[in-house]
Amino acid sequence: MTLQVNKERIKAIVIDDDEDSSDSICQALEISGINVIGKGFDGEQAYQLYKTLTPDIVILDMNMPNYDGAYALEKIKQDYPNAKIVVVTGFTNYTFEKEQADAIFTKPYDLEPFIDTVNKIALATPTIVK
Q: What is the value of pTM for the model shown?
């Protein structure tokens, strides 16, 4: 597997209550040239980290204790509608998330398409129609 190295340092936060999963995601992102500037373990931490660090992209697990990923997704998008969020989940029923997330990956997933998608979404600029 070859991960494409990104020349621009995209800033990401990773939110996942499973430390092994979080570490794997962070390692893959860093190897591909994406700067992981924060990690959290529930939806409230996701929101606070986004507000404080303003990353280019959020990698967000859905199933977490306390405040889950759906809470974070809704709260971040409500306050920051242009936020770019990639959801990673073990569930296949994610109707609400489809409307809010920029991409959804069902665990387990291949890292190469995941990294490619994160890069594309993070580097995309919003289209402004006048």
A: 0.87
